[in-house]
Amino acid sequence: MAGEALIEVTKLDARAIRTMAVLAARPGRLLEAYRAGASGRYATPLKMFVMMTAIFLAVLNFTDVQIYQTVWTTTPGVTPVATADPDGVNVHITGAVEQELWMRQRVEPAADPRIIPALLDAAAKATNERDRQNLAYEAEVVRDQPVITDRLVAWLSNATWLMMPVYAALLMPLFGRRRLFMEHLAFAMWAHAMAFALLLLLALANRLGARLDIWPLLAPYGVYFALAASQYYGVSRWGAAWRCAVHMALYFLLAIVPAGLVATFFAMDVGAYWAFLTA
């Protein structure tokens, strides 16, 4: 029964297609129709959210686009040299650059083959135990980075469900505490469905070699948010625009950043990190 329910809620039927079209063109009208109880022709917010999440994850798997990855590259013709910082924590590698990529195709290998040997060579030549431990641990981090990244991405994908109520709760002080929480939750589901739609387009574009960054998507998403919120909550477009900016900032600071920190903690090798700190 649970399996049949999942298939039903993720099925791309005529109502879902109609909803996606209206959601993209007239988001405020769609949201208002749902709140007024005249949503028989459209898919529910929950169905759209679950369906778009499933399609998004499927497209990522098909295109081999990673939500997030850390990549080490080297400068052509330059031999990478690793040095330990006097603070006992940081490590510097001249002739190499570390990049954080979002919504790009998977880079293999994640680290240039010369990075780890450079770190291990520097560790072997270290003049004190602290620097040796620091460099050796950095080599282990670089070696395990693909595994850590996969765990981080998997955790963040699941965390979307946990962050949804936070997204809705942050709408309350900005768009009215007297409204039912379910009204804010419905808006949050619609907003996430559209966000996944934009990310789908980005994944497909990068699969074709566009090499686009994720950050420019904030502009069209902000416009969508403002237009939809203006009609749904009955505020002016300017009022919706500044509320949108405040909401996005709060959501980033109070939800996305903490979720990323928690995901990183569970993804990393805590035992190895503790051994490094106590060495």
3D structure, described in words:
The protein is mainly alpha-helical. It folds into two domains: about 1-65 and about 150-265, no CATH class; about 65-140, no CATH class. It has helices at about 1-10, 15-25, 25-35, 45-65, 115-125, 130-175, 180-205, 220-235, 235-265, 270-279, and strands at about 65-75, 80-85, 90-95, 95-105. Helix 4 packs parallel to helix 7, helix 6 runs antiparallel to helix 9 and helix 7 runs antiparallel to helix 8. It is elongated and about 70 Å long. The N and C termini lie far apart (about 55 Å). Residues about 1-10 have low confidence and may be disordered.
For the largest beta-sheet, the strand count, sense and barrel status come to: 2 strands, antiparallel
Order of helices and strands: HHHHEEEEHHHHHH
Assign an overall shape: elongated
SSE class: mainly alpha
Q: Count the E strands.
A: 4
- Terminal CA distance: 53 Å
For the record, the count of structural domains works out to 2
Estimate the mean pLDDT confidence: 82
Which spans have pLDDT < 50 for at least 5 consecutive residues?
1-10
Using only C-alpha atoms, the radius of gyration works out to: 23 Å
Helix content: 55-70%
Could you give the order of strands across the largest sheet?
1-4
Helix count? Answer: 10
What percentage of amino acids are in beta strands? 5-15%
